[in-house]
Amino acid sequence: MRSISKLARVAMTAVALCCTGSAFSATPVCPDRYIRMVIPQPAGGVGDMIGRLLGDKASAILGQTMVFENIPGATTMIGTAAAARAKPDGCTILHLTTSGVVASVMRDNLPFSLERDFTAVVGVGSFPLALSVNAKSKIKTFGDLVAATKAGDGLNYSTGGSGTMAHLAALRMLKEIGGKGTHVPYKGNAPAIQGLLAGDVDFMFPSSSEALALMQGDKLRVLALTSEKPLATFPNVPTMKDLGFADFAPRIWYAFLVPAGTPADAVARMQDAFAKALADPTVQERLSARGYISEVRGSADVSAFIKAEAARWKMVVKENNITSED
Fold first, then answer.
1. Which of 178, 208, 225 is where one domain is finished?
2. Cβ atoms of residues 238 and 230 within 8 Å
3. 226, 249 in Cβ contact below 8 A?
4. Is 298:271 a contact under the CB 8 Å cutoff?
5. Which of 46, 58, 316, 323 is positioned for an S-S bond with 277, CB 3.0–4.6 A?
6. In the chain, which ranges are E strands?
7. Residue pair 93/126 in contact by the 8 Å Cβ criterion
8. pLDDT at 24 (0 to 100)
9. Which of 5-14, 32-41, 99-108 has the lowest mean pLDDT?
10. Within a domain: residue 69?
11. Which domain holds residue 262?
12. 103, 76 contact by CB (below 8 A)
């Protein structure tokens, strides 16, 4: 019943967004050429999959070709800067994720500002993080992990690099439980997960999408999720909220932005198209099977959300003296 009601909410939000304001113009969102989606991440990753899946559906709804341009590097900053320089003509859209916001608060003198140089279009949901240990670990429960972080030198934990959500989530958790941990950064989440599977580190916070198949294959044990509610795809796994951490909900969320100054009509029509794309049953089925939590946020809501996320993670970055060179 939960998945049905969630889908209904997404669909109703899509309808509400569609019906906001006057009827959309019959002219194309991008009159002169195709719509370019800038994905500031490598091809083949989870974020790339989300952008292409929803972009393909939105493209069909808009009746316009959409091409996907992966511009990775500097933790999304290179691609984001390229999108900021684009003309605000409705022909460029940026696929933004949590890491882009965190990276922006870790660096000084950026050639762009997410708040100044972009207009938020729509937020489309998130993957919660999955606090995980090796399936062969003696740590069986969250309580076991807490105790282990307070013994001796504590535990080692892997991440895809300094300032990633896995890193910041681990720091927050260790602070809240009063435990000790040693950061072992890797060049990306894939090798960080391999380090956990090899027993080189004790725990990690991969996304639910990354952890699910490994949990099902008895290679990882998931101790807790950072979702608001338990997920059917992770049976018998508590949330951090269930464990008494009401405000501990870091996630890998996704949103779409356009260069500031993009015509309001184009923004509204893109918002409508992506909301409808997310509500598509085939999209819902594919995403929910990976632990994705669908949630449509309109332009104003996602703009406020991004601002709040920047403030939240900037505080964590400052408290722990994290820099982009760590």
1. 225
2. yes
3. yes
4. yes
5. 58
6. 35-39, 66-70, 92-97, 118-128, 130-134, 155-159, 181-185, 203-204, 220-225, 251-259
7. no
8. 46
9. 5-14
10. yes
11. 2-127+251-319
12. yes
